[in-house]
């Protein structure tokens, strides 16, 4: 059997491809001459699988899609506090190339506009690297995100540098406010070269999947940045990545994204997939017209909006049974499943609370649990501790060792790989979800 995902991607390309309105970026000669009919899409999973359709292997310059990744590299190198001293995180509500700084601090408002991106680029290498060394750090870093060695499109670089008057003005303004410590022309050259790195839609999806995977490149297994860096980057992408259209994007499509004037859009659904589209014709915000259409279609079809309500927490309780041992003791078996975060863990605590009358042992079965976040681990470990302090024995089925072991001096539960010790127990009743909710 073939997976239907590529067929779905081809279907939405066919259905969203027309009308092909907008215009290519005319202020950069090489981009103005781009084929306006190019249309590609790629999804990359967090376990390293890519699905694509259309022109997903056509190389283009990365342009502003490089910004969140270089921001991540700067934070990883210098720490968040050092970066925040130079670049803010507030939406500007302005176009990407506005000469805009915060009134009080003088910082660029965020790293997604050109003023912030120039500053971020200048931070790489700690202010002591040469132009060439700084760019090589950027190129290698972006290559790590993509999972392959990336190179520069020299024609795009030369074309863009010849017309980089506005970025030169911004860089000189940044130097005037001591926000960059190196020569403005060096910053412009390095940043322009950064934007001219050549990528395909498949590359962009892989880079997005690295962010979706908490900073680990799914194809290579390399940890590129730490999860805390990813959280910072995705937060800024969510609020600032689409410039003066960020509000529309958030309300209608609803996942962190970044656009570029070569026609690319990169999106991230944390913990699930990376998304990339390519179509060179842009709207008035500098964003691909058909790319927005494709992302909107996927968000609607696949429930990708980050504000969509999750599955109800009570679904983590797979079974809730009461057994009677040959000795006459009563055993309550609570089998959990899926991904457990705060709300799901709270639900488990609530259905156990006050419902252990006549129970001599609680069995907590975690064999079908996919993941526990930190707070859920602590909550379930505390459940085990408190039940034991109430005089009830506890058996934990936790072959993956998801729960932390008790601290010294705390009661220790029994551990079992399965339910074999309870095979001779008679089932008395099975509590339904309706019964649990009535309590």
Automatic annotation (TrEMBL):
All copies of domain STAS, residue ranges: 331-403
Any Pfam family? Glutaminase
EC top class named in words: hydrolase
Task: Locate the residues binding substrate.
Answer: 64, 114, 160, 167, 191, 243, 261
Keyword Acetylation attributed: yes
Q: What is this protein called?
A: Glutaminase
Q: Could you state a single Gene Ontology molecular function term?
A: glutaminase activity
Domain of life per record: Bacteria
Q: Could you tell me which HAMAP family the record lists for this protein?
A: Glutaminase
Listed Gene3D superfamilies: DD-peptidase/beta-lactamase superfamily, STAS domain
> Acetylation: is it a keyword of this entry?
yes
Taxonomic lineage of the native organism? Bacteria, Bacillati, Actinomycetota, Actinomycetes, Micrococcales
Q: What is an annotated GO biological process for this record, any one?
A: L-glutamine catabolic process
Report the EC code(s) recorded for this entry.
3.5.1.2
């Amino acid at each position: 059997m073939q997976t239907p995902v590529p067929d779905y991607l081809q279907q939405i390309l066919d259905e969203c491809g027309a009308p092909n309105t907008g215009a290519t970026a005319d202020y950069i000669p090489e981009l103005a001459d781009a084929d306006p009919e190019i249309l590609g899409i790629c999804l990359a999973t967090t376990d390293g699988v890519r699905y694509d359709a259309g022109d997903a292997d056509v190389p283009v310059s990365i342009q502003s899609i490089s910004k969140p990744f270089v921001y991540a590299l700067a934070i990883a190198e210098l720490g968040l506090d050092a970066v925040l001293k130079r670049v803010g995180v507030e939406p500007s509500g302005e176009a990407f190339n506005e000469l805009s700084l915060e009134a009080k601090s003088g910082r660029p408002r965020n790293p997604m506009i050109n003023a912030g991106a120039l500053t971020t680029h200048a931070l790489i290498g700690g202010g002591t690297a040469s132009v060439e060394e700084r760019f090589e750090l950027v190129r290698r870093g972006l290559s790590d995100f993509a999972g392959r060695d990336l190179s520069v499109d020299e024609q795009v670089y030369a074309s863009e540098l010849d017309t980089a008057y506005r970025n030169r003005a911004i860089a000189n303004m940044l130097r005037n406010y001591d926000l960059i410590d190196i020569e403005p022309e060096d910053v412009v050259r390095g940043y322009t070269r950064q934007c001219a790195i050549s990528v395909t839609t498949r590359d962009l999806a892989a880079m997005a999947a690295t962010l979706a995977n908490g900073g680990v490149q799914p194809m290579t297994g390399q940890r590129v940045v730490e999860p805390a860096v990813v959280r910072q980057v995705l937060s800024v992408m969510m609020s600032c990545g689409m410039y003066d259209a960020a509000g529309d994007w958030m309300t209608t499509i609803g996942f962190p994204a970044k656009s570029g004037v070569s026609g690319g859009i990169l999106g991230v659904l944390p913990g699930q997939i990376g998304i990339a589209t390519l179509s060179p014709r842009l709207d008035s915000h500098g964003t691909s017209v058909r790319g927005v259409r494709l992302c909107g279609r996927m968000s609607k079809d696949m429930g990708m909006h980050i504000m969509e309500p999750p599955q109800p927490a009570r679904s983590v309780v797979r079974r809730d049974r009461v057994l009677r041992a040959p000795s006459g003791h009563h055993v309550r078996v609570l089998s959990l499943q899926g991904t457990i975060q705060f709300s799901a863990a709270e639900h488990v605590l609530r259905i156990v609370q006050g419902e252990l009358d006549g129970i001599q042992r609680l069995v907590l079965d975690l064999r079908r649990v996919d993941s526990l976040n930190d707070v859920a681990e602590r909550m379930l470990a505390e459940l085990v501790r408190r039940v034991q302090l109430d005089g009830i024995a506890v058996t934990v089925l936790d072959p993956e060792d998801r729960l932390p072991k008790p601290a010294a001096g705390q009661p220790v539960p029994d551990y079992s790989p399965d339910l074999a010790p309870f095979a001779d127990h008679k089932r008395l009743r099975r509590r339904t979800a309706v019964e649990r909710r009535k309590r």
